Amino acid sequence: MAKINKLEGYKLALPESYAGPNYIYAISIAPSGSAALVTYNSNINPPHTYPTLPAGGIVSAACLPATTNSTFHIQVTGGAVAPAGINTNETLYFIRHAEAHPTKWWEDGNYIGAGQWRALDLPNAWRGKIHPNLVYSIDPAQDLPGSTSVAGDSYSYVRTNTTVLPYAIANNLPYNVAASFEMLAQTPPWQQLPTQASNFFFSGGTFSNQALLVGWEHDHIPSTVNALLASYNPNIPPAPDWPDNDYDTVWTVKLDANGNLSIDNATCEGISSPLLPKTPPQF
Q1: pLDDT for 253-275, tens place per residue?
Q2: What range defines the domain where residue 130 resides?
Q3: Contact 100, 140 (CB under 8 A)
Q4: Euclidean distance between CA atoms 179 and 165, whole angstroms
Q5: Which residue in 36, 48, 115, 281 is a FRET match for 186, CA 20 to 30 A apart?
Q6: 237 and 146, same structural domain?
Q7: Peptide bond into 15 cis (omega under 30)
Q8: What's the total number of domains in the chain?
Q9: pTM as predicted
Q10: Left (φ > 0), alpha (ψ -120 to 50) or beta: where does 258 sit?
Q11: Element (H, E) at 23
Q12: DSSP for 103-139?
């Protein structure tokens, strides 16, 4: 806010320090160009413990790939040469956003009630299964055309964020967004996006010796993984598509100290999608 105030010359009386998570600050700009600062205190006093979901909403289930015969394991060692700059000692857990579509072509960038049940249960569902120390997701500032109005209003793609945030909050983990490229671009050079995502997460050393949980759009996870595989050898068979009805699977990508690569989808959340309530949990 201080940079905006100085850049635009608004001369607003800004707070001198962070007042806490209950405070919301909004800079309101009139058509004349004058600005005013509005401060709102939500006065929320939540308990320090993670919320317990109402009983009956979460029903356990077997991993979906086992029931659809879509399990896979890819190992790249030996004859393949590790690409220059590849990360080492990295584990990345790719997950899909939580349930999103009440009907086939409905879209507003968020998840639906069933998705909130899943997202809030992920700290429980993944306990002992995955061990990240960083959490990432798509940059929600990116917008796309929606299908929730005749005018085709754009929407902010927030569901990957709201899917992984409960896990980050419950485990006190750093949360970040991948904002250096437009993951959901609909115009050229969108063909380069898988390589950009692969380079972001697996090259340059930024995430060497790290374990990441990454909330991503499911159609873009296989293409990102396949770009990584192609960087080793373009003749390596690609990973399978992510099934449209699979909200439960975790794809695990591992790079060892020598840059050897393994990818599998053996881990899952173990939550029954068909039995999730259609309305959000009531606390």
Answers
A1: 999 999 999 999 999 999 999 99
A2: 64-268
A3: no
A4: 17
A5: 115
A6: yes
A7: no
A8: 2
A9: 0.84
A10: alpha
A11: strand 23-29
A12: STT---SS--HHHHHHHHHHHHHTTTT---SEEEEE-
Q: Specify whether 75 is located in the same domain as 37.
A: no
- What pLDDT does residue 47 have? 80
- Cα gap 88→100, rounded to integer Å: 34
Is 216 found in the same domain as 76?
yes
Q: Is residue 282 part of a domain?
A: no
Instruction: Quote the pLDDT of residue 114.
Output: 95
The answer to whether residues 162 and 232 belong to one domain is yes
For residue 70, the model assigns a pLDDT of 79
In the sheet that holds 261-268, the strands lie side by side as 73-76, 261-268, 249-255, 90-96, 211-216, 134-138, 175-178
Q: pLDDT of 98-107, one tens digit each? A: 998 877 767 7
Q: State which amino acid sits at residue 149.
A: S
Residues 24 and 109 in one domain: no
- Which pLDDT value is given to residue 191? 63
124, part of any domain? yes
**Residue among 128, 109, 162 at smallest CA distance from 269:** 128
Does residue 101 sit in the same domain as residue 8? no
Q: How many angstroms separate the CA atoms of 127 and 269, rounded? A: 9
Residues 103 and 13 grouped into a single domain: no
Do 21 and 77 lie in a common domain? no
